[in-house]
Design a protein that fits this description.
- The chain is mainly alpha-helical.
- Helices cover 85% and strands 0% of the residues.
- It has one domain.
- It contains 5 helices and no strands.
- α1 runs antiparallel to α3, α3 packs across α4 and α4 packs antiparallel against α5.
- The two termini are 19 Å apart.
- This is DUF4345 domain-containing protein.
């Protein structure tokens, strides 16, 4: 395993799995403490746990892709799309809703992972084609 090639997938996989557990692990406790809103509705609990499942699944894929060379490109591409998509959503929210002190650091990290993934895809795709 090449650390420099796989570190993006390893770090973002761990962070996204942790975020998923935070969002869906115990939403009736975490959301009021972290984000200041109550989660009493069954559908909201279901939605937050579904988001948890998405985050756990995609994070696991990235971790597996870091260790399985045949999955690396697909895992990195999905990482770039995820980080680019979530960054885009946060930028739209920032423009329309204002700056979020809680989620601005997340936006910065997501943009860094997005750029890092693009860099890795370009760098290692060229090496593998040589």
């Amino acid at each position: 395993m090449t650390i420099s090639k796989n570190l993006n997938l390893l770090l973002s996989g761990i962070i996204v799995i942790f975020a998923g557990i935070v969002y869906g692990g115990h939403p009736t406790f975490v959301m009021p403490e972290l984000l200041g809103f109550e989660v009493n509705d069954l559908e909201l609990k279901n939605m937050l746990r579904a988001v948890m499942g998405i985050y756990l699944g995609i994070g696991a894929y990235w971790l597996i892709g870091a260790f399985k060379p045949k999955l690396w490109f697909g895992a990195t591409l999905s990482n770039v799309l995820f980080m680019g998509g979530i960054s885009f959503g946060r930028i739209v929210s920032t423009l329309f809703d204002g700056v979020s002190p809680l989620f601005t650091p997340a936006l910065i990290l997501e943009l860094l992972f997005f750029g890092w993934g693009l860099y890795n895809m370009n760098k290692y795709e060229e090496i593998e084609q040589s």
